[in-house]
Amino acid sequence: MICTNWLFFVLIEDAESVKEAVFETGAGRLGDYEACCFQTRGTGQFRPLEGAQPHLGHVGSLEIVEEVKVELVCRDEHIRAAIAALKLAHPYEEVAYDVWQLADL
Predict the structure, then answer these.
(1) Helix locations, 11-78, DSSP H
(2) Which pLDDT score, from 0 to 100, does residue 105 have?
(3) What angle do CA 85, 19, 36 make, to 5 degrees?
(4) Strands (E), the chain
(5) Which residues, listed in sequence order, are joined to residue 3 by a DSSP beta bridge?
(6) 97 alpha-carbon distance from chain centroid
(7) Buried (b) or exposed (e) across 96-105, using 16+ Cβ within 10 A?
(8) What pLDDT is stored for residue 88 in this prediction?
(9) What are residue 103's phi and psi, to 5 degrees?
(10) Of 7, 10, 54, 101, which has fewest CB within 10 angstroms of its CB?
(11) CA–CA separation, 82 vs 89, rounded Å?
(12) What is d(CA 66, CA 89) in angstroms, rounded to the nearest whole number?
């Protein structure tokens, strides 16, 4: 089984609903366990540019928000569906996430 590890950032108040959306695709399954992830709280920031339609804040103003970084694994055959679900469930118009493939050791 080839797995992908990935992480995304989400507002604290939206974390549970976004995680549930990606878990429904099969992401976060590890052996005989499901809905597996690790999360840490942190502070994010962004400044919307002209043309943006921000969920929070205003164009041209720096916004500082409390967010959660969610890290989880996903089998390769589910990763595209999981990222699509993330983008649909996430409140931001630009979702920050990282994806990397794990070595099959």
Answers:
(1) 15-23
(2) 64
(3) 120
(4) 3-11, 38-46, 63-75, 97-101
(5) 75
(6) 6
(7) ebeeeeeeee
(8) 98
(9) -70, 140
(10) 101
(11) 10
(12) 18
Q: Taking CA 55 as the corner, what is the angle to CA 79 and CA 6, rounded to the nearest 5 degrees? A: 20
Q: What are the backbone angles phi and psi of residue 71, rounded to the nearest 5°?
A: -115, 135
What does the pLDDT profile of the chain (105 residues) look like in tens digits?
A: 668 899 999 999 999 999 999 999 999 999 999 999 999 999 999 999 999 999 999 999 999 999 999 999 999 999 999 999 999 999 999 999 999 987 776
- At residue 16, the pLDDT reads 98
* Chain length of the chain: 105
Residue 4: the pLDDT is 87
User: Residue 61 has which token pair?
Assistant: 């103003």
**Closest-CA residue to 74 (of 7, 1, 3, 19):** 3
